[in-house]
Specification:
The structure is a homodimer. Chain A is of the alpha/beta class. Chain A has 14 helices and 20 strands. Chain A has an 8-stranded mixed β-sheet, with helices on both faces. In chain A, strand 15 (288-293) and strand 16 (300-308) form a beta hairpin. Chain A is globular, with a radius of gyration of 23 Å. Chains A and B meet through helix 1, helix 2, helix 3 and helix 4 of A and helix 1, helix 2, helix 3 and helix 4 of B.
Chain lengths: 402, 402
């Protein structure tokens, strides 16, 4: 069997933890398996390098930032290879140049295009445990790129796909995917299985266990993922296309406190208004999430939507500047809002889920500001202060049947 | 003009110093010159990485150690590129893969074989200041190698040769090459010029300004070097084939406190004895320096030689083990010895230099234990405690005429 294992920054945070990772890799190797390991940078390395860069430049070149950041993973893989060899087993570390990890040209947020398998397969044939730098690649200019947030997960999934691996294990500091954040909902339960689509909705809603891009790639190439703890031997959560058991109505409750709401009041009720609004924001790379448009009345309408809090100031400025072009009477906004979502692959065949969610929130005395739904997800916008309580109420409402 | 500049670890030790390096590069660029900059790792980075490795492995793999160490220079070049861009000038950093800095396969002490000029020339054509990672290369297995001590100097000289640079400036924390270590001889003077051969002898004798391999390469390819301070605008010392002024009798006095002496007493006075001795030491990679063999008498002879203090224990052990094979009566050794040397290209045509040196040491009441000479160098072995005083005495004796 060929197993790809990925360990994040906290799992390789110090020499002891690196030894722990080495030990887990050796255990797998001793079973007779081929082992490919993807590592992130040690603990705070990425933050330390970013801070160093910020002392040099207020707005560092993205190309140079990638060149700088990519050193972090190279430190991790070489140290882990040493640790494995210290235990008496053969290992070799490889960086993005050596693996020929081809990406698109965009610095800071590149996408993997193609991975040369030759070097890795040669080293596996030589019976070595192969350690690969996560998060990074090389673009067509032969420049270093990085893959953006959660990039090492993406590296692992891409390697598992390219090498036709039998398993892709994502090790983290939690022991799997939970029905809700256990810090908010103490009786949250670990899921044994979850579908790609559920995981995608949970990840994009702030569950922060796996990054969306890696889950999307896993779904595309049919790579079955296992999310598990680097510190325990608990079996973790399997992420796959279809559940082996009957689909759950609701798999998880997600909380996301990052959004801010903007409303444009008194827009002309003519075609093209919405296009104008989101076009000016798109040009500034501001991502708009939940969108709500009122029914036109007296020739005017209102549009509300959410943006990430960090983009709020620029969004307001951009809209004010385009006021003449868009044509509206007023802007309102609020920053202290949060999204609470339920996700479940079984939801699409059960019409009662939404009403049960709204009922639970109503019973908790919490006001719903906006609603957005997809086939397997229902999201409501509430006051940020009430988000945790809303999540608990919703979790309790659906928990009985699991 | 194309100028290669090399800055060492202390010159890029913190953000302020990196800005200082950036400023110097920009000044050169503003004169209309093409600028290629070679950097070492920041300050203590190399030591920090070595310490990290030592916590993982008692004897880390050399391949993985090179993979680890090479990250240090990549951090320096990317940060310095950011600093130059922050000042409003174009810059780009390149690592050993991007430059295609081909080396021999030996990890930890590789030698440069060939440098592809294409990428650097392209970036210079694009009017960029090009920053290149010193100290590292890539071998035929596509693995990272490092060039050993003083490796960044070698990178700079090799680049200057490959690019047919008009100047190669080695920036350091002293403002040039001195007639002696100013901490030992307060009236030591900075030299305006020195020949490659003098510099080679000074470097190998512990002057520690330029590493021997880089000077040897500069001599081979006729690259004129300038050693100068990164903190002042003093002109520094030019290292070249021939001096423009008349050759000095003595260019400098060097002190080296690293050696230890070993004597083998009562060797058989037959052919092959010396070969046996240095063959067993050579097999353990123990470098032998000054060798003195007594005239044979009563069928036996003695051999004395120096080794680096750090190799003393292993040398003694190796010789004891080979006692039967070599055949000797006793071993003596002393660790507290030092070499004091005078170096000067004019020496080879003046027979009185040696006697003046010995006279100065005699007048200072210091005993000479061993003597070794080359065409442009005379070295004596003295007690370590007396080395500084011997150097001052010799320096004074030759200083009058300079």
């Amino acid at each position: 069997m060929l197993i790809v294992k990925k360990f994040g920054g906290t799992s390789v945070g110090d020499p002891d933890r690196i030894r722990n990772v080495a030990r887990r890799c050796v255990e797998e190797y001793k079973k007779g398996n081929d082992v490919v390991v993807v590592l992130s940078a040690m603990g705070d390395t990425t933050d330390d390098l970013l801070e160093l860069a910020s002392k040099i430049s207020s707005k560092p070149s993205k190309r140079e930032l990638d060149m700088l950041m990519s050193t972090g993973e190279q430190v991790s893989v070489s140290l882990c290879a040493m640790a494995i060899m210290e235990m008496g087993y053969p290992a070799i570390s490889l960086n993005a140049f050596q693996v020929a990890m081809h990406t698109t040209k965009v610095y800071g947020n590149a996408r993997l295009r193609k991975i040369d398998r030759d070097r890795i397969l040669t080293e596996l044939d030589n019976k070595k445990i192969v350690l690969v730098t996560g998060f990074q690649g090389v673009n067509k200019y032969d420049d270093v790129t990085t893959l953006g947030r959660g990039g090492s997960d993406t590296t692992a999934v891409a390697l598992a796909a390219a090498l036709h691996a039998d398993a892709c294990e994502i090790y983290t500091d939690v022991d799997g995917v939970y029905t809700c954040d256990p810090r908010v909902v103490p009786n949250a339960k670990k899921l044994d299985e979850i579908t790609y689509d559920e995981m995608l909705d949970l990840a994009s809603l702030g569950a922060q266990v796996l990054h969306n891009r890696s889950v999307g790639m896993a779904k595309k190439y049919g790579v079955e993922l296992v999310v598990r703890s680097s510190l325990t031997d608990a079996p973790g959560t399997v992420v796959k296309e279809d559940l082996t058991v009957e689909k759950r109505l609701v798999s998880g409750v997600a909380i996301d406190k990052s959004p801010a709401r903007i409303s444009l009041i008194g827009l002309k009720d003519v075609p093209g208004t919405a296009f104008n609004v989101f076009n000016v924001l798109g040009k500034k790379n501001i991502v708009v999430d939940i969108i709500l448009q009122s029914i036109g009345r007296d020739g005017t309408k209102d549009i509300s939507f959410t943006v990430d809090s960090k983009d709020l100031d620029e969004a307001l400025k951009t809209l004010e500047e385009a006021k003449g072009k868009i044509g509206f009477e007023a802007i309102t906004h609020e920053d202290n809002v949060a999204k609470v979502s339920i996700v479940g692959a079984g939801m699409m065949t059960d019409s009662g889920v939404a009403s049960r969610m709204f009922e639970a929130i109503y019973n908790a005395g919490i006001n719903i500001k906006m609603i957005s739904t997809s086939e397997i997800r229902i999201t409501v916008l509430v006051d940020e202060d009430e988000a945790d309580r809303a999540a608990r109420a919703v979790h309790d409402a659906f928990n009985a049947e699991d």
